[in-house]
Structures are given as structure tokens and as C-alpha cells.
Amino acid sequence: MLAKHANGFSSSEVDADQVARGYREALQARGAGVRTFEDLAGRLELPAGFADALLSPLDAETRDTIRVWLTHHGAWDPAATQLGIHRHTLRNRVRRAEQALGRSLDSPGLRAELWLALHREGQ
């Protein structure tokens, strides 16, 4: 079932116990000016200053390293190959990023935030 906002904006498909989430998605769709929540894909924008604040502790080399590593879904060998470095060097750079950020890159949430911030930076 789809949760629909009164003005015709809809969520992704939800079960009866997920109606609250569906309603929130419909509101997000309305706020973005699209008809369905799925239409938001690729249109999410970070709040002003978020990317700069998140990335500020990272130097250019570390940003590039994390961008490549995330592009390879955290796979060490292909990312190291693309960067032209040894995988242990890559691991050290990722650890350096974690220390600078004060957070673990094992967190899918942080990875998503970094991906969005790096994507915004590259625009």
C-alpha cells in the first residue's frame, strides 16, 4: 500500500505497520516538489554548510582517498590499485580520516554522509 498525502504525493510501498514512515516520505516528496518518494533519488541535497563542516578536517589527499575507497564500496585492493598505492597505505589513510573525523568509517551512516558530502564538493 502507498501512504498518500492529502495533496496526492505518495510514499514508497509500506505495510500497515509502516504508515507513519510512509506519511513522512509523502511529506518529503511534497517538500521536494515530486509526486513519489522514489522520484527523490538523486535529488537529495545536503543542508548548506554540512559538506564543508564534515570535510573540513580532511586534507585533499585524504578526501580523494575516501572518495575512491567509497566508490569501491570499501574494498581495499581495487581502491588501492586505482590510487596507485599499497593496500596498507590505504588502510593507514582511512585510519587517519577516522582520527580526523573522530568517527569510525565502519558506520554506514558516516559513509553515506561522506559520500554525499564528497559528491556535493565535486559538483
From TrEMBL:
Residues 63-119 form the PucR C-terminal helix-turn-helix domain. InterPro entries: CdaR-like_regulators (IPR051448), PucR_C-HTH_dom (IPR025736), PucR_C-HTH_sf (IPR042070). It comes from the Bacteria. Pfam families: HTH_30. This is PucR C-terminal helix-turn-helix domain-containing protein. It comes from Lentzea guizhouensis.
